Structure formats: C-alpha cells, structure tokens
Amino acid sequence: MRPLSKLSKVFLGVCAASGAVTYYYLNSSEKKVYASWTVNYEPSAHAKWDDNWDHRSPKYLKQPKLSKDENNNLINNDVEKSKPKSSRHLILIRHGQYNVSGQTDEVRTLTKLGQIQADYTGKRLKELGFPYTVLVKSTMSRAQETGSIISNSLVDVPVNNCDLLREGAPIPPEPPIGSWKQEMHKFFVDGARIEAAFRKYFHRAPLQQDQDSYTVLVCHANVIRYFVCRALQLPAEAWLRMSLNHGSITWISIRPSGRVVLRCLGDTGHMPPDVITSW
Questions:
Q1: Which residue has better confidence, 165 or 63?
Q2: Each residue of 185-195: pLDDT tens digit?
Q3: What is the pTM of this model?
Q4: How far apart are CA 278 and CA 274, in angstroms?
Q5: Which of 75, 146, 158, 221 could form a disulfide with 244 if both were Cys (CB 3.0 to 4.6 A apart)?
C-alpha cells in the first residue's frame, strides 16, 4: 500500500475534525443537530416558521382535553379532531399584456398579444387537469378579460369577481426602486386591501373539506408577489425583487399542517418564446 501524501493526511485530518464536531453536537445534552459548517448556528427570530400564521392551528385551541391512546400516550382530542384533512392550492395568474398607455382602467384592455397569452394559459390549466373549485377575477379590465379567456378552457368552473384583488402598492419595497415611486397614502390604502385579500384566500383548509381544493386567482403582478412573500413568511418588503411575465402561473399549496409550499413562480413554459412578455 502506498503511503499517504502530506495533502491526503491534511484532508483526512479536516474530515476527522469535522466529524468530531458533528458528533459532539449530536451527543450534547441539548440534542441539537448541526453540520460542521453550521457550528453554533441559530436561526434568527424572523426565520422561524410561525405555525399559527393563519390563526387556524389546532394546537392553539383553548382548554385542550387530554386522553390516552391505545399505546397509553397522552393525546389532545380537540387538536386531533381539529386537524384539516386536505390541502388548499392557490393558482395565481397574472393578466396578459395590456394597453399601458390607457388613461383609465376601462381602456387598459388586453392587446392582441395579451389575448394570445391568456389563451395559452387557459389551455395549460386545462391540460393540468386539476378539479378546479372556482376561478376568481380581479375587477380591473385586464384581469377580467384574461379570466374570461381562461374560462373558455375551463368551461365548468364557477367564476367570481373580487375587488380585493385589484392592482396596487402593497408596501414600500426594499430596496427602493428609483423609477417606481408611490405616495405613502397609496401604500396605506392599497396595502390594507391587498393584505385583506391575502387573509381571505390564504389559510389552511376548513375541517369539512375532505378533498384538495384548487382556486384560480386571476390578478396582478404586485398582488401576486406580495402574496408569495407573505405565504412563505419572507419579508413583505421583498416583493419587488421578483419579476412575473404576463399570463404566468404561480402555484402555492397550503398543507393540512399549515406548511406552505411554493410549487412554481411565474411559469410561462407553456408559451412559445416569441409571445412571452413582462412589460
């Protein structure tokens, strides 16, 4: 057997030291598991997941009643009975390209390209084959038109309208964008409305829901980006760090446990490259 080189000995020594560090934390009295590169790492307070983010966590019921299961373990009957059984899926669609030169919402309708984008998205949603529960449209013209075109592909899905989903300025972005500035009163008014929309649509399933639900929300880039930040418990001020194409699909799932999964963000892979736009 060839003797180890000096470099190999150094490498093995580093590995041994890393293993020793990991072993120490695995067997410490605190029972915390750290990889060697995260020695002494503690997640910051804002990074910890809030299990009761929608105020519907069964664990926060008042006066829980305890009993024993077949294995003689204490269980909380109220918590067990209050656990949702299904997931809620939110499919967020940005409207198609529209006439940005219009002075009022009534004339800010979709361009011909925007109509094509909406048609591609509707066909994609149909191909996915989910049992859609409802399609909800923002009451702004471009979202209304986009939703109507999508409905041509989802003919049996009920349609609702919602003023809360209208475009707006949710919260001052960080970092600030010099080319995009809003009066503070806009954030004050729009932010409350968009937050109300988040609370209306983003929550774990109710107890009586025994199958997964799929809600399609046809709305706007600012609204969707804010929803993503809030749902993932990221700083809401980060919403403008993302970009969404017209007619894009963003999919968020809310598990029975309350955990949230971002399955896709701004997907336009169902469109040919020559029809993809963001402005």
A1: 165
A2: 889 999 999 99
A3: 0.81
A4: 12
A5: 221
